[in-house]
Amino acid sequence: MLDKLMKLSDCVVKENDEDLIEFVNKNLANIPAYFNNVVKYCTDARLLSPTFKFHNPDKYVELKENYELERRSSHINMTDSINKINRLCDSYEIPRVFETGKDRDLYSDTKDGKIPEFLAIEDRSIAADLGKDFLLTALMTNEQVKKYENSKDFLTSIVNDNVNITPLGINEIGLDRWN
Asked: From first to last of its 179 residues, what are the pLDDT tens digits of the chain?
């Protein structure tokens, strides 16, 4: 993945177009933004507190809904960003940075019912895996990967927990159950 990203970087830098450089940086930044939202959601002390849950149930549900909507939005943004980066690679006729295993763009949303929800959820799951791989390979040196091996396991478990969960009620963490 890193070598493909470097090829894209070389192409973009040769263009000497600040807007294009900003476009790439903005889209790549959407990847860690998604995981940041997942971690915030899963580690907010108020959501982990039984006292808050039972003594302020309305605020608890509101907080979970807000986190879920923010997480879902950032997941859609990350999926769209992966598509944009891959299309940019296609325009330069270089290998795609993100190998999706699909012969099309990933579906980030249902596009107002035009795409079945299960396909959008499956594709966002692929995007989460690609994003995790990107974070672990492109943003960390070998020393950092070794140092933060436990963090890698934590990140992997968060992604897996959110990807493999079945549809649950509003008070549970799930993957993109909001329309």
From this structure: 778 888 888 888 888 888 888 899 899 989 988 888 888 888 888 888 888 888 888 998 999 899 889 988 999 999 999 999 999 999 999 999 999 999 899 988 887 778 888 888 898 989 998 998 888 776 665 565 555 555 555 555 545 544 433 333 333 334 443 33
Which amino acid makes up residue 157? S
Q: Residue 23 gets which letter from DSSP?
A: H
Say which residues have a Cβ less than 8 Å from residue 31's Cβ, sequence separation at least 6. Answer: 78, 81, 82, 131, 134, 135
C-alpha 146/C-alpha 141 separation (Å) is: 9
**Listed residue (84, 155, 168, 72) closest to 121, CA to CA:** 72
Which secondary-structure segment (H or E) carries 9?
Answer: helix 2-15
Query: 42, 45, 64, 76: which is closest to 158 by C-alpha?
Result: 42
Backbone angles phi, psi at 65, to 5 degrees: -60, -45
Contact residues for 126 (Cβ-Cβ < 8 A; gap 6+): 100, 101, 102, 106
